[in-house]
Every structure is written in C-alpha cells, then in structure tokens.
Design goal:
Blueprint (H helix, E strand, L loop, with lengths): L1 H55 L13 H18 L1 E8 L4 E4 L17 H10 L3 E2 L3 E3 L2 E3 L1 E8 L2 E10 H84 L6 H24 L7 E3 L1 H15 L3 E6 L6 E3 L1 H18 L4 E10 L2 E8 L6 H4 L17 H12 L2 E6 L8 E8 L3
Parallel strand pairs: 9-11
Antiparallel strand pairs: 1-2, 1-7, 3-6, 4-5, 6-7, 8-10, 11-12, 12-14, 13-14
Helix pairs in contact: 1-4, 4-5, 6-7, 7-9
Length: 435
C-alpha cells in the first residue's frame, strides 16, 4: 500500500522537477536570446546612423522632414526595407527628435508623418530623444504577437535625430517557443496531477477495502476463538431443552393444542441455528469438490424450509440432468441461508424460486423472491458480518453465503432489487460448470 503511493509521489515529483529544470533552462536561454537581440538591434542602429551621416551630409539642403525630397525619402525607404528583411527586423523608421518621419521600411508610414501613433511606448521615445540615451521597450503584445522596440537617438548636423527599430524576429521566435513550452508543460502537469489524484483515490479505495477486510478478519478471529466455547456452553443445553420440550409435549399435549410448546420448540431451534451460523461462519475447513446434482439438494432444502415456512411457495426450476462440481453440503447451506433470508423479508408469505441459467462454460444459480428488497443503507454492506435489515436477524446469513462462495471459487451478487424498482429481488451465484 505504501510503496505504490510513495512510488507515485516520487514519480510525480521527479517529472515536476524535470519540467521545472527544463523551464529554467529555457528561461535562461530566453534571457541570452534577449541580450543577443538587443546587441543586434543596437549594432544595426549604429550602422544605420553611420550610413545616414555619410549619405545625407552630401545633400545640399537642411536635414529636416519638411525639406526632405520625396525621391530621397523613397530611396532611403527602399534601403531600410531591404535592410530589415535581411536582418530579421519587423520595421525601421528614421525621424527627428519630435517624431516626424524622414523614411520608413513600411509603405504605410509616409515621409513627414508623425511616428507616435505607431510607437509601442511614446513616453520612452520622448525620453530617449530628450536625454540622448537608447531605450529598449519592455516586451509587450500587439494583437497577441510579442513586440519589442529600440529607440536610438543620434546626431546629424548638430541636431538630434531618432531611429525606431522594432521586433527582432529571432528573439520573438524564442519567446514563442518558451510560451509554447509553458503551455504544454502546464497541460502536462495538470494531466499528471489528475492522474496522480486518480491513483491516490484508487489507493485510498484499496486502503479502505483492506481496512474493511482487516476488520472482517478481526471479527472472524473473534468468532473462531469463541466458537468452541459457545458450542460447549450452549449447544448441548439447548439440545437437552429441545428433547425435554418434546417429551413434555407428548405427555401433556399429545394433540398439540397448546401453542406454548410450539413457541418453546421454535425459539430453541432459532437459537440452535444462530449457534450453527456462528460456527459455520468461523469454520474454515476445506470444502469438497465433487460432482453433485443441485436439483436434489435444492428439493431437500425446499422440503425442510417448507415445514418452517408453510406459506411460502417454493419453486425449484433446475434441470435434473444438471451436475455441478463443489461441496453439496456447502451448496445446501448457501441455498437455505438465501431462502431463509427471503422468507423473513417476505414476512413468511410469498414466492421463492431457484433457477439455473446457462452462461458460456458455466452458469448462474438464481435465487429470486417477492420480498420488498434491501434498504439503501443495508445494500451497501449487505455481505458484511452482522449487517441485517431485520431487527431479529443476526446479519450472518449473506456473510456465510459469500464466504462459502469464495471458498468454492464461485461468485455471489445481487442482480436485481425490488427496493430499486426491479422485479423480483434476485441473488445470483456464478458457478463454473464441471460435470
């Protein structure tokens, strides 16, 4: 019990640690990718600034957006477009310190237009223009796509100009890879915890079943220790009482008109059966495995029970040719216990039918009655010792049947219950048929 639980917990902990370590590795790699991206963008900004200084110094006019000729703007835009495609950038824009565009790698940002509506962070752009220091924006999202910009100030002919470089694709790919891993890892961890929860639940069920079995065994051990004493102290005196009652009845009431003798005899027999049930429940002697005709055994049991419950209609619908392999005495005890329980449940009036149903290489012996069925509270624990739906019952009848079935290699189940709307209430004993 403990080993599977510890194994499941250790396995889950190992997988979580593995994924945590993998996430740390990817996070570290992401940091390295970010630093490399910032280095590439900074280097590219320096290259663009140097190119503009060499190129635009040769122009015979003042370097301002309003005086920048359209043919030069188009020439610089084409150059920026080729450059961004070659270096893996999303966009590059040249502006003055106020954000007025000279040229852009994107056609939709025209020369002379204000860049600020297109910026990720306007305040960082303005701050970089004021203090002359490059600024990287924090990683953000636009329409669900990661985005990062570099605002790079430089001087040309004594005036501060600005470069806006956006989205290094190599870094964005690393971000997407990291996010994908986190999503997959999160799903895996959720599934893992779901599986672990299911395993722990199954182990808890097994533990509860083992605990119930342990309690049952404790009860069995108690019964085993006390059975010999009960047999000695109660069975012999009851036999003497029963024989004495029979002798007195023959002398005093030969015509059987006085009911008191019947009451005494019935109560003595009830106590005798109780002792027999306790002794039978605790008895673990090996059962025989011989071929026997179940119909003959069932008819004998029906005849005996008919005297005890004369208002119950006993029906045996089992083929005479049927032969089963098992202990005939144990089978009769199973049948009598099921029948007696049914008779008590029906109040001594009703119908009880035993039938055989072929199923593959074996079959099922069906014990059906017209009783009211089992209350829900009793149905959950009906096969446990001392659980009874009757105030006068001992709660050992079904326990004995189950114990005998297990020792015989058979199975016992409640297949229909009138209390749940079924008709009729029916127990089945699954029996491999061996002639």
């Amino acid at each position: 019990m403990k080993r599977p639980l510890l194994g499941a917990l250790a396995g889950a902990a190992a997988l979580i640690l593995l994924f945590g370590f993998s996430a740390w590795i990817l996070s570290r790699n992401l940091g390295q990718a970010r630093r490399a991206s910032e280095g590439r963008m900074t280097g590219l900004a320096e290259y663009i600034a140097d190119h503009l200084a060499e190129d635009i110094f040769s122009y015979p006019f003042e370097f301002t957006p309003s005086l920048f000729p359209p043919q030069y703007a188009e020439q610089q835009s084409r150059w920026l477009s080729r450059l961004t495609h070659a270096t893996g950038l999303e966009r590059a824009v040249i502006t003055d310190s106020g954000g007025q565009v000279y040229a852009s790698s994107e056609n939709f940002i025209a020369s002379g237009e204000d860049i600020r509506p297109y910026l990720v962070d306007t305040s960082l752009f303005q701050g970089s223009a004021r203090d002359g220091r490059p600024r990287f924006t924090p990683l953000s999202e636009i329409d669900g796509v990661p985005f990062q910009s570099l605002y790079y100030p430089f001087s040309l002919r004594g005036k501060r100009q600005m470069l806006a470089l956006e989205s290094d694709q190599a870094f964005i790919a690393s971000v997407e890879q990291f996010r994908t891993y986190l999503v997959v890892a999160s799903i895996f961890v959720i599934i893992l915890f779901a599986i672990l929860t299911a395993v722990l639940y199954a182990l808890e069920r097994r533990f509860q079943a083992a605990l119930a079995e342990s309690r049952r065994n404790e009860r069995l051990a108690f019964l085993g220790r006390t059975s010999a004493e009960l047999a000695h102290e109660l069975k012999n005196p009851l036999a003497i009482i029963k024989s004495s009652v029979d002798v007195l009845r023959k002398q005093v009431d030969p015509e059987r008109k006085l009911p008191a003798f019947g009451y005494l005899s019935d109560e003595v027999m009830r106590l005798s059966r109780l002792i027999g049930n306790i002794l039978g429940f605790s008895n673990e002697k090996p059962l025989e495995a011989k071929a026997f005709p179940p119909r003959a055994v069932l008819e004998e049991a029906a005849t005996a029970l008919g005297r005890e419950f004369p208002e119950v209609a006993w029906t045996v619908s089992v083929p005479e040719s049927l032969s089963l392999s098992g202990d005939a005495d144990a089978f009769r005890q199973m049948a009598e216990n099921l029948a007696r329980n049914a008779a008590h449940a029906m109040g001594g009036k009703g119908g009880f039918t035993v039938s055989w149903e072929e199923r593959g290489k074996g079959g099922a012996m069906r014990f059906a009655d017209t009783g009211p069925g089992f209350p829900k509270a009793v149905r959950k624990h009906m096969f446990e010792p001392f659980v009874s739906g009757s105030k006068t019952g001992t709660g050992l009848g079904l326990s004995i049947v189950r114990s005998l079935c297990e020792r015989s290699g058979w199975s016992l189940s409640l297949t229909s219950d009138r209390a749940q709307g079924d008709e009729p209430t029916c127990f089945e004993i699954g029996i491999p048929k061996k002639a």
